[in-house]
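Project standup — Tuesday

K.O.: blocked on the structure for the chain from last sprint. Re-posting the sequence here as requested.
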Amino acid sequence: MAGWRMDDVITQEHILTMLYRQRDLNFVPGAEHLYSNSGYALLADLVSRFAGTLFSEFCQREIFDRISTSTTHVHDVHQRIVLNRAYSYDDVDNVYEIRVLSFANCGTTSLFTSVEDLATWMIHLQEQRASGDPALKRLTEREALNDEVENAYGFGLTAREWRGSDAIQHSGSDAGFRSHLLMIPEHGFGVAVLCSVPCGPQRLAFEVADHCLADHLDPAEEEKSNNQGHQSETQPDPLAEDVMSQYLGEYESQELQTRYWLLMKGGHLRVRHQRHRDMEMTCLGIDRFKGSQRFLNAIRFTRNNGQIDGFLADGGDRVRSLRFEKVEGRRENTTGEHA
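H.V.: unblocked you, prediction finished:
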């Protein structure tokens, strides 16, 4: 939403600087659970400050070297050459293309590893679990939300019941990379799936578990059909031209330090950013629009004394109601044509 692309070099400093500008919460703490990459970036920064060393160096010394992983490291220098490194790809119209990833940050991502090292890691976790290690217990500890509903996500790992056994797991994705780690401690079982293309690794991991543990698991529950027939969405009536014209102009987010231009093209409202393609917005009613891109999937205009003064933007499932203020007196180039 701030204009960053996946193939940009994004450093830890970039992320922390953006986080320090954030003003609002998505919800009251404890009201619900929402996965937070930002939280892990802050945790990595805290570890680095308390340890007095880089987060990557701390992990190498205190974790990876202690359990003898041979290839795992925190990749916080994007220029670093890595032996046998895999690159990520994606299928675009039946042609594979490279999906460049140049991250130089940690806590949220940038853990380079292999299936062999992940197997070593799972064996270590199994041994620690058997010994009653309180740290491991904390990782999978589930606490109730404010409404007393139990949260499935622990302090770093997801733990839930699956076919009569506890399943401990976590997924990861960046660019074209996909991964899933699944452990069934009761049966001494674990599987790691690493992909360099989007392929549904969680599904693959559970299919392997189904096959290997078929004689030890409770019968699988039949999937409940939710097919109630196709129900077409009711399309709202088009807004009048004088109403649509109120939305045009330039909008700025102080938190992201970025600007969007709203313009008309072919009778439709479009959103323009200098680093993205124009995005067509679908009208859902007065002052409400649905976006065509995941990072900007909804906007709701706000008014002051009847006049548009900005909008609130949602991105994916983790950004909610991010404030953009309308920049007064800036209406140039709102016809949809590039200057």
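K.O.: great, moving the ticket to review. The first strand starts at residue 9 and ends at 11. The mean pLDDT is 90.
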